[in-house]
Write a structure and sequence with these properties.
424 residues; alpha/beta; UDP-N-acetylmuramoyl-L-alanine:D-glutamate ligase; Protein-Tyrosine Phosphatase, Chain A; 2 domains; 8-stranded mixed sheet; 6-stranded mixed sheet; 14% strand; globular
């Protein structure tokens, strides 16, 4: 739509900045990772420190972060609080990353704030003591400025990657910090052991905060407990079961109770919370499911959801980001599949894994008789699966939020999301 031209221009500016202006890939340089926090703090100082105005809930973990944030967000809304959330990644439109109450940031407000930030961004690119702000860092600054203008009382932050050096970790006094669970993801950044990953995520724990987790491994709980003791933070390990969704609800309830939300509002919030591309059923016959699972833990949950339904054949449309370890991710879902369509997602700043690599790993994991095809265009892959799927079959699109979001546009276009400022 022409009315969204300024928004699209702002997005192109940020994307081109990420690609072309020399900013390093966010969180990739681990030689001096503290620079990420220094750069974020400097950027916020230059725009008036908007982060000083809120009560924060800060959530990290390998899986379930977005779901927990959504549940807490809706619970705070039910209790009559003005609440903002900053999450990632987005599915269809970038405004999904920034939400106040029941609406995403408006395209015009987003464009206005980016325009205001341009002189600061450009100056930092040329003269900044800690280098150019990245796409993620600028997005976070936009969110905080918007939350301040909307007079939010509470702000919920979903960590982008890890915890200790994530841009969101510039906040000093969160009311609550939380870790959902720990598994292998972003190992190039966080380390190759669960302890190193957990240690990085424990970096969000701050002095005086209440800390909650549904992680159940004893070694990781000991690490979290020691960190809390060192920070004078209240440590709570919540009872966890072998059901990711129930664990998410348990964590959301504990967070909300700790900040004084009544149980009736909490339960309403949990019932109301809904996110796109989390095992989202788009059609019934055949059942078409969009799911953004992109690591082993998330895909394990997806596979569990698949097993819980009755169906004829499973048709998998899959793409995976190029920095993922393919075998653990694909190993959870490929053995359940009858037909596999290996494809690519589109992103101006990220890459899919090589189609041949995905197909090779899928072939090694597939049950006998599974058909595997490479179809580079995602829409063509979906059309091919739709063409052979019977009414009682399932078509599952997964492996990447970018892939699931790209195909979700067939039901909810980017213009629709921008116009309604909602996903549903």
């Amino acid at each position: 739509m022409e009315s969204h031209a300024r928004y699209h221009e702002a997005i192109r500016y940020l994307e081109s900045f990420a690609r072309e202006k020399g900013a390093p890939d966010y969180m990739r340089d681990q030689k001096n990772p503290a620079v990420y926090l220094k750069r974020m703090k400097r950027l916020l100082r230059l725009v008036g420190n908007p982060e000083k105005h809120f009560k924060f809930v800060h959530v990290t973990g390998t899986s379930g972060k977005g779901t927990v944030v959504s549940m807490v967000h809706e619970s705070l809304r039910a209790a009559g609080k003005r609440v903002g959330s900053f999450t990632s990644p987005y599915v269809v439109a970038a405004i999904e990353k920034i939400q106040v109450d029941d609406l995403y940031i408006s395209p015009n407000d987003f464009a206005d704030i980016v325009e205001e930030l341009k002189p600061t961004i450009e100056k930092e690119h040329l003269e900044g003591a800690f280098g150019s702000p990245t796409y993620f860092e600028v997005f976070f600054a936009v969110a905080l400025i918007y939350f301040k203008r909307r007079k939010c009382e509470w702000v919920l932050l979903e960590v982008g990657a890890g915890g200790r050096y994530d841009a969101t970790n510039i906040i000093e006094k969160p009311a609550v910090t939380a870790v959902t669970s720990i598994d292998y993801d972003h190992v190039q950044i966080l380390g190759k052991t669960l302890l190193s990953i957990a240690d990085n995520k424990a970096g969000i724990i701050k002095k005086g905060s209440a800390f909650f987790t549904t992680e159940k491994r004893k070694a990781l709980l000991s690490l979290f407990r020691r960190t809390c003791q060192g920070k004078d933070a209240a440590f709570t390990a919540l009872p966890a079961v072998n059901d990711y969704q129930e664990n998410n609800k348990t964590l959301a309830r504990a967070i909300c109770r700790s900040i004084g939300i009544p149980d009736t509002d909490i339960e309403k919030g949990i019932r109301t919370a809904k996110l796109p591309c989390r095992f989202e059923v788009m059609e019934a016959q055949p059942r078409v499911v969009l799911d953004g699972a992109h690591n082993r833990a998330k895909m394990r949950s997806t596979a569990s959801n698949v097993r819980a339904i009755q169906f004829g054949k499973l048709h998998l449309i899959v793409s995976v980001k190029d920095d993922k370890d393919l075998s653990p991710v694909l190993g959870e879902i490929v053995p359940l599949t009858d037909n596999i369509y290996v494809t690519e997602f589109f992103s101006p700043t990220l890459k899919s894994a090589r189609l041949e690599d995905i197909a090779r790993v899928a072939t090694s994991l597939a049950k006998k008789g599974t058909a595997i095809r490479i179809v580079p265009n995602a829409a063509d892959a979906y059309a091919a699966a739709r063409g052979i799927a019977k009414h009682d079959d399932v078509i599952l699109v997964t492996g990447s939020f970018y892939l699931a979001g790209e195909l979700r546009k067939g039901w909810y276009s980017e213009d629709w999301v921008l116009e309604h400022r909602k996903s549903f």
